[in-house]
Amino acid sequence: MKNLFAISLALVFAGNIFAADATADFSAANKFYAEGKFADAANAYETILASGAASPNLLFNYGNAEFKSGNLGKAIAAFCRAEMLAPRDSEIRANLAFVRNQVQGATVRENFWQNWLGNLSLNEWTVFAAIAFWLTFLLLAAKQIRPALAVKLKSATWIFATLTISSGTILGVQAANHFSKQTAVVISAQATARSGPFDDAQSAFTTRDGAELSVLDRRDDWVQVADGSGKSGWLPAKQVEVLPGA
Question: What distance in Å separates the CA atoms of residue 71 and residue 139, rounded to the nearest whole number?
Fold first, then answer.
């Protein structure tokens, strides 16, 4: 059995998830990793991602390579993106938690409910809410067509109506997080957040590689962020990787 907490996990080999050229590039990147050439492997995985190909396996391997190269922020961003595609993958979650534990300084963390809701992706919550809605609709229609079944179907109708309301509410919350609540992961060794979106602005706070910050605003090549302690400031966009909220 694989050790979920060891970052040097055996590489995941994707079957037919890429076209022939991408598969060859993926194999070459895996070879770099196996040879201990982690920076080369990370660059090779990043090139594949830049071509538009993405999968949990690819992002997982890329995250491992970045971690082995000493880039905590890029590793965290890769694992977060992998988790969005495969939210219940235990290896992705374990490696993400492992790398997060290496980060120094204030950082934003999901609370219990955000973490629990994250067990399903936005698409999965959409499907769940749609199924609950249509089952409720069919039960109500059956009660109208066959009044004699009304008593027998009453409990089931209430159950699925409740599921429709609750899943719809959760879907709304998750959609709002995904489209409006973003996270910036610091990808430089150290970054200085400033009081305004320009180089000469006064320093607001300093943050380190791998810190996860809430995105408040964006302006040109700057991102306004807040850390886990409540401090806010502006960072150059090149020093962070911005991720959607869910």
Answer: 54
